[in-house]
């Protein structure tokens, strides 16, 4: 049993008002947010928002993120968790407010007067109620009556340490749920943006593959004509056809990858997988302004929702610890009611009760100390988690900055490589057309260009993803993803 579940068990035992559902909901929501790579990750699911249309859906990155924030399953669960905690807080508020209710009843009653403590002398005084002033045989100890009554009840807790601290814990749990929801929004933006960028990269791969197929077809036609004219050997034509089929296979594989990435994107934003979509944004590219680890870390400690979530959990656990400590304090409450009663339809009489109750625990020290020690252990564990998260944030920030720097250099190298490979292919094409070389160096140059283009596409994708992850590490992804991508 882990510490949070153990705490929930203790809360159930002492029945401290509404703290048990509050802590359970906050803990479950926090657990989901901190484990986005679990096998049942809800952020890879969504609620389908619209039926399939015959027209392709034109989708920009902003549109995709907007749909993700509206339909993603993981975010909806976080929003429902916040609503649940808000309802629990309202229930906790009721402990401070008076409770008023009405009751009414009517019925036929038979009473055993002897059993109620009435002696013979007292019973004989009831004879005037019977005809002739004499109690019938068998009714000396038994009486019957019709009773109709109505009452209004009032009760209120005037002072209770657990109720006060429980209210504070409820407020902290609600704030923790809010930051958990905001963290979930950042997770959605990250998942959707990466899926969109991956689909753009795959589209670039498809475009590159198509261009290489077209070049290979032109080469096949040229070599075939030259072979028919007896200028080149049959081997050159075979090489050209092998290269063409290799490029056709690469095109088929690229199209298949793109189709699957589009399905994943649609799944995350609530678009039916059968809907045809067209991505309207090109692959973004923009250099990111220089940032130091200290600057990003300071921003992260101010903006990270998971850090703020854990801070509010610390407030919550502190209040829960205070709940257990305050069980030693007296509890003061007030109860009252006012009503009217009618017996045998003869007259109506009012009755009321006004009663104050002071409940002072005398001795249950072992139980109180046990609960207090358990809650203190949870509070200490939460402080340790906060310290660990601060170190983890520093680690994430530094790693993200290194990734951004390295991927930027890889983009520069990949761009230069594409330029060189393009020039080499152009020169080799001229040599083949002039009859200086056979087509083997030309095929090699085509393959080199294809590899260089693939590397460039992947480098651009990795650069953009690294900038998104840096924004997420800083806690500003939802607000500034356009700035980090250079849109």
* Percent in helix: 55-70%
What's the CATH topology label of the largest domain?
Outer membrane efflux proteins (OEP)
Which oligomeric state applies?
single chain
Highest-level CATH class of the largest domain: Mainly Alpha
Q: Judging from the principal axes of the Cα atoms, what is the shape?
A: elongated
N-end to C-end Cα span: 48 Å
Instruction: Write the CATH homologous superfamily of the largest domain.
Output: Outer membrane efflux proteins (OEP)
Order of strands across the biggest sheet? 2-3-5-6
- H and E order: HHEHHEHEHHEHHEEHHH
SS elements, strand count: 6
Main beta sheet: 4 strands, antiparallel
The amount of beta strand, in percent, is 5-15%
The value of Rg in angstroms is: 39 Å
What is the total domain count? Answer: 2
Mean pLDDT across all amino acids:
80
Please tell me the CATH architecture of the largest domain by its name. Up-down Bundle
Unreliable segments (pLDDT under 50, ≥5 consecutive)? 1-39
Secondary-structure-based class equals alpha+beta
- State the helix count: 12
Question: Which helices and strands occur, and which strands form pairs?
Answer:
Blueprint: H1 3-14, H2 19-34, E1 57-59, H3 61-71, H4 73-94, E2 99-112, H5 120-124, E3 142-159, H6 161-228, H7 234-269, E4 277-279, H8 293-303, H9 305-325, E5 331-343, E6 346-359, H10 365-433, H11 440-474, H12 477-485
Parallel strand pairs: 1-4
Antiparallel strand pairs: 2-3, 3-5, 5-6
